[in-house]
Write a structure and sequence with these properties.
Layout lengths: L7 E3 L1 H4 L4 H14 L2 E5 L5 H15 L3 H4 L13 E3 L7 E3 L6 E3 L6 E5 L20 H26 L17 E7 L2 E2 H5 L6 E4 L5 E6 L5 E4 L7 E3 L6 E6 L1 H6 L9 E3 L11 E2 L2 E8 L6 E2 L17 E2 H11 L2
Keywords: Iron, Metal-binding, Oxidoreductase
GO molecular function: metal ion binding; oxidoreductase activity
Protein name: Clavaminate synthase-like protein
Amino acid sequence: MSNHPIPIVDFTPFLDKSAKQQAADQLLGSFKSAGFVYLTNFGIPEGEVQDMFDWLKRFFALPHETKMLAPHPDSGSHHRGYSYPCQEKEIQYSDSGDEFTIAPPSMKESFECGSEDNDFMPNIWLPEGVLPGFNEACLSFFWKCHEVEQNILRALALGFGLEEEWFLKYHETANSQLRLHHYPSIFSELLETNKLTRISAHTDFDTLTFLFQGEIGGLEVEDPNEPGNYVPVPPIPNSIVLNAGDFLRRWSNDTIRSTMHRVVAPPGVAAKDGLLPSRYSMPYFCAPDMSTIIDAIPGTWSADQPKKHEPVSVKEYAMKRFAANY
């Protein structure tokens, strides 16, 4: 990736069915080489994305006491509601799930929501009337992201030579999550001395993540060809940054990369009086049904290329990772 930036894939040929297999092959190829891809023409108009950013900024502009009316539970196993700055920390587990590293606290605040039909992890909203229209905007955008998720999963299945609905049967319950992020203005010295982070280096443990970046950058990904070297992923207008998670890597028998990434001080942005500007982003985490057992998919293993991982329960693995982050 040092000589080749993260690929840009136009999703139009898949959505309009003019060259579905070609777009699917490009998407899968990017995941195999880099674990990341910029996806353009993904199915949500630019204006609707901007509307959601407007709601995000209105929410985070509320007083702390107001945002705490929808508090994220102290236990990370219920990943909904508002998390205040430094409440969450990043945990990076080994494949076995027995070893992990803990990073400094993340200097960000978040709001998380999902499907209203998710009885396992119900939403935690502000009381009615506090920010009229916010709940409805979040839910509407969540379902738009869900539709994008389903199309991406269809494309990945085609890329693997499977029938289009193969991954969808493991994502029937809309177990995914929309997160709204605000990285408050912070003294650059705190990041430079590693006393705080914006988000430390980690992999996602879902199937895949797509990120709507604001105008301020800061996302970096590890170069697969140079471990420990991170390269910037600057915002590209009208695109999402799409990355594979640990579950998809395991499903693919490690033919897909789940790449380490982090959020740092944005390159080329000068601190004013030592303060870095605020940053906003919206990641959407595509998660399998809790009942799913992740095992290598057909065509990714053989007698000559055996399975690299034991089957793993989504519920057990996800709950362990969720709980450790709080």
